[in-house]
Amino acid sequence: MRKALRSLLGAVSSLKLTVVCLSAAMVLVFAGTLAQVDGGIHDVQKRYFQSLFIRWPDAPSGIPVFPGGHLIIIVLLVNLLTAHIRRFRWTAAKIGIHLIHGGLVVMLLGALLTDFLAVESTMRLSPSQTSGYAEDQQSCELALVETSGKDFDTVTTIPQSLLERGGEITDPSLPFRVVVKSFHRNARFVEPGRSGAETKPASTRGVGARTAVVGVRPATAMNERNVQAAVIAIEPPPGAKDEQGGSWLAVNDVVDPQTFSYGGKTWALFLRPTRHDLPFQLTLRSFTHDLYPGTQIPKNFSSRVLLTDSAHRERREVAISMNRPLRYRGVTVYQSGFLPGDSGTILQVVRNPGFLAPYLGCLLVGIGMLWQFAYHFLGYLARRRRTA
Amino acid sequence: MRRFAAIIPALALLGVLISLCGCHDREGVKVRRVAKGEPQGPVPEATPPMAQPASAGETGITDQPPALWQRQPPSPLRKLSYLISRSDGTRCEVSLVTLGGGAGGILENVNRWRSQLGLPPLDDASLQKELKPPLTTPLGKVLIVDFTGTPEKGDPARDGRIIAGILDRGNETVFFKLRGNPSLTGRSQGDFVKWIGTVRFQP
Question: Do B83 and A191 touch (CB under 8 A)?
């Protein structure tokens, strides 16, 4: 037993494992970079770097063919910590090494923290418009809006991950079951009966009653976007009175609400980009888009916004421009673009609890290297003086 | 023994991190209460600074829009899309949508537009009274409707009036729609009618 533990500890903390991990990381970066020729940056990032394994074919049931970024980081972390604890010596000569290793640990943990917790989204504002949420254009959610309240609507959202899984979705806020018949990450719409296998209308009610839906390969280029579509059925819960809800085609492109009645209340359904609530609200006061004289080349975009945070009694005007983001309550808001015809602004909203990790990691590594260099250099000078 | 003990926290860390990897994608159903009037639908995609709208040729449709209309990228449902905006913040959207067959019938579509403006539905008889004189174009006769209302959830600077044209092409129905601020929609009606006359479908 002891022998087995010793050999396990030896393997986990070995320098060979470090070299294997670093080599695998190099191969992964190379393969991931090449994969971006055909795949979009977001898909490649998810498949190669934010996964435990790269699978073939690319599906949860695919066979793992190579370690993904997360697995390499985790093994490197364990390898580094185990080796460090095992060979730890508290001497002045080793302080620099400890600091360098500490910095690496902070950077590796920061990378994982960013992958797990960071959220990037966009906020679009027209002059005088106020918003307290930002949208993630890479994913969608099904919003079911119950509109019978006098002052408020109740919005129940179902994330894309649940829609992709399919099957039945229930929630105490919903008096019915949502049955996902199909979900397409990118869809096109054709006249029923015209295109091969898809001969039937997508749904019995709403926009889908007049069109068939066909799944197509997800878009990968930066200037293309996917139009997600879901066919869902509204069905009564088991044992409840049979109330015909029908089936609906929800498209992340249809702005107009599709409404239905259930249980004496009116509901509207939308498929829309995933919304992330913010702890504050922004109102666009003005937006400027400067060009270099005589050209159409953008020189500067800037937005003047009113920041309102009633919980913290904060109310002030802020200017956000290309290199001057707004940082407030863990959220960073960057100037990102503009709406067609300069009719408004597009802000990028980033929430990354691990944003300090790379700075802290680099600082520790830098101090550690400086310490090691200074310690050995001063030792060398002392030895030289003694010899002289 | 101290050396063996070192492996325990490292393995515990490994377990925690791997389970985090497995869990971080799991999201659930969320419920929010929002103030009435807050738009809940998707906002039409904006033009990214570097992206160019697709040419009309890619959609199989050619047209000659007025100079001040800003072409928007087409989407699966909107074959052509334009934005008309003014410096006072008012705006209108122009769209061309084609749907197979009868597209659910004229009455159903007209009533859907009316509901978007907070207007009561029409029956067949009252629809006939609401139809404006049809527009004669090289593609055929385009039925015209014009409604003004107060949308329950809408910004008056951007919504409140719909002028729409309906063209039956046999195997598909074409919808031309001008929707937005009532005053700007009225001022854009002439351009809209002229534009409908320039639309051609490539064989």
Answer: no
Count of domains for chain B: 1
Q: Structural domain boundaries of chain A? A: 2-118+356-387, 120-131+278-351, 135-276
| Neighboring chain B residues of A149 at a CB cutoff of 8 Å | 33, 36
The reply to whether B81 falls in a domain is no
CA nearest neighbour of A72 among A34, A39, A32, A112:
A112
Q: Which residues contact A24 (CB under 8 A, 6 or more apart)?
A: A66, A67, A72
Chain A positions touching B49 (Cβ under 8 A) are: 298, 337-338
Asked if A338 contacts A72 with a C-beta cutoff of 8 angstroms, the reply is: no
pLDDT at A242 exceeding the cut of 50: yes
Verify whether the Cβ–Cβ distance B27 to A162 is below 8 Å. yes
- The Cα–Cα gap between A351 and A279 comes to 11
Residue B2 pLDDT level (bands cut at 50, 70, 90): low
pLDDT tens readout for residues B172-181? 888 999 999 8
- Domain assignment present for B25: no
d(CA B7, CA A96): 23
| pTM of the full structure | 0.66
Residue B20 falls inside a structural domain: no
> Which ipTM did the prediction report?
0.75
DSSP codes, A10-63: HHHT-HHHHHHHHHHHHHHHHHHHHHTTTS-HHHHIIIIISSSEEEESSSTTSE
Q: Give B25's contacts in chain A (Cβ within 8 Å).
A: 161
State whether residue B38 sits within 8 Å of chain A by CB. yes
Domain span at residue B96 reads: 89-154+165-203
Q: What is the pLDDT of residue A238?
A: 82
Could you tell me if residue B107 is inside a domain? yes
Given a contact cutoff of 8 angstroms between Cβ atoms, the answer to whether B44 and B72 are in contact is yes
> Residue B9, preceding bond cis, omega within 30 degrees?
no
Closest CA to B89 of B181, B203, B23, B10: B181
